Amino acid sequence: MKFSLLKSASLISVILLTTTACAQQSATDTIKNNVNQAPQNSASIQSTQATSSVSKAVDSQLRQLLSQAGIKTQITSIVPSKLPNMYQVNLAGQPPLHITKEGKYVIQGELQKNPSKRVVTKKPARSSSLQVGKPVSASLKSDLLANMGALKNMSAKTPFFYTAVPGVIWGATLEGVPFLLSDDGQYITDGEISVIENGQFIGLDGNFEPLKNQAVFATLDHSQLITYPATSPEKAVIYVANDVNCPYCRRLHQQLPMLNAKGVTVKTIGYPIYEKSPEQMRAIWCQASEDGRRRAFDKAMLQGKMTPAPANCKADYVTPNREKSAGLAVMATPAIYREDGVLYQASFESPEFLEFLGVD
């Protein structure tokens, strides 16, 4: 079991909120006004696209492919998508699909027009298959942010990654809420990229997520991870996004001696989500040595007792890795990842957990 961090919310409200509580309501109102006043909302996007044409061959091919993949809902039209290299498949009574020409990659979701003024108008260089799961280039990130000026939650710390669809970028807010956007920053959706293989939907793109997560791990300051090394020959390494006040994180922590004995090294990412956790975790990370941090963390997780920060420590060693971890899109803690970037999505108290780690 995991503790849910975020309740469902509209994508535009999540992306556009400022991070200070006192500004949230006014920010939301401003965004609603911006979206309503934008040149195109999702309805007008479909209206504009309806005037565009798709060849009969492509139309027939995509209809047949989606029918074989199990789409029973009536397809009302197929038009070019505002997402690059994709077609929009409009469905009766459901959000549209966006699908690549060969029919491999599919996104379901309404597109929302970015209300920001478009500052950079040049066409971005499209990504290649070798860039999937890698952070976008510094120049593309700069251009995206320049075109997202009205989106208050966007900053230089916002993670952006190339996906398997050239021209479609994956991003996340610093709160870990993921979204997809066109590489000119003009259209945003909260959909995810699914894969059709051998005529059937096989789920989300299982290649992208691990590659992205590995890229995130590489950016972390490993000196600021609290590490519990394997106490027998190492067989697995896991990264765990943890909060000292999360009850399920504490239950996982009780299993660390067993995991270490089985050859599992555990690297803890400080990921405070409870209101009182940031300062408590800052104090733990302020301890002078790695052993001192580990002892303070154990005390918090096993006894619920928080160690105060030394009087001379005013630094915050938790937030930098917490912000870099936004690219993991943590939606619940503890979030457990293998070293290869694969997220564990079941109970860590089940036998499947050890199978996932490759230990017995």
Give your account of this protein's structure.
It is a single chain. The protein contains twelve helices and 17 strands. The longest helix is centred in the first third of the chain and has 17 residues, at 21-37. The relative contact order is 0.12. The model is unreliable at 1-44 (pLDDT under 50). The chain has two domains: 11-205, no CATH class; 214-357, Glutaredoxin (3-Layer(aba) Sandwich). It has 360 residues and is an alpha+beta fold.
Structural class: alpha+beta
Strand portion: 15-25%
| Quaternary | single chain
Distance between the termini: 21 Å
What is the gyration radius calculated from CA atoms? 22 Å
> Order of strands across the widest beta sheet?
2-3-4-5-11-12
* Number of beta strands: 17
Mean of residue pLDDT values: 87
Helix-strand topology string: EHHHHEEEEEHEEEEEEHEEHHEHHHEEH
Number of helices: 12
Stretches where pLDDT falls below 50 for ≥5 residues? 1-44
* Main β-sheet description: 6 strands, antiparallel
Summed up, what is this model?
The protein is an alpha+beta fold.
Describe the SSE topology.
Elements: E1 3-4, H1 11-16, H2 21-37, H3 42-49, H4 56-68, E2 75-80, E3 87-91, E4 94-99, E5 105-108, E6 112-113, H5 138-146, E7 160-162, E8 168-172, E9 178-182, E10 187-189, E11 193-197, E12 200-204, H6 208-219, E13 226-228, E14 236-242, H7 247-253, H8 256-261, E15 264-270, H9 277-285, H10 290-303, H11 319-324, E16 332-333, E17 335-338, H12 351-357
Parallel strand pairs: 14-15
Antiparallel strand pairs: 1-16, 2-3, 3-4, 4-5, 5-11, 6-10, 7-8, 8-9, 9-10, 11-12, 13-15, 14-17
